[in-house]
Amino acid sequence: MGIWWQDLIDRPDLGSATLFEAKLVVALRIAVFAHKSGADPAPHVSARLGSIALSNHLSLVLEAMGQVWPEPFGVSRPCCGRLSPDEAMFVGMVRSAMRGNRASFDRQTREMIAEDGRTLIYNLMWQIGRMAAAAEATTGQVRPREG
Question: Cα 78–98–12 angle (5° rounding)?
Fold first, then answer.
């Protein structure tokens, strides 16, 4: 059994993510598939996230990642419970940024993204965390996982 096979077995699923992280991953998938089909992803993503502002900000994150990611970003189908390797990394990056842990974020991304790209994406993801915290404070719906 090769390493690639082990990666397929060990991939995390959406159940290992917080509710907000899972919503971000599904919104990410919807955005990618809508974009590929020529549709405007904004209404679908904002409906998934419950916020036009979060949808717009996720769009900025995806644009920045598209500019600096070394290969095409791989996503699973919107209904798939398994995370692609890129999606698993995305969740780790979001967790680190939402907690304000730049060192952890850099450890995850240093080998594949240059410093300026890491800084841009970290700051955008950190801002998503602030927006999520503000949404939680007003609605009680969003809470990043601790630990």
Answer: 40
Identify which of 137, 146, 56, 28 has the alpha carbon closest to the alpha carbon of residue 95: 146
Residue 132 in tokens? 């999520």
Q: What is the pLDDT along the chain (147 residues), one digit of tens a residue?
A: 344 444 444 557 888 888 899 999 999 999 999 988 999 999 999 999 989 999 999 999 999 999 998 888 899 988 889 999 999 999 999 999 999 999 999 999 999 999 999 999 999 999 999 998 887 666 555 554 444
3-class DSSP state of 139? helix
pTM comes to 0.82
CA distance 126 to 105: 11
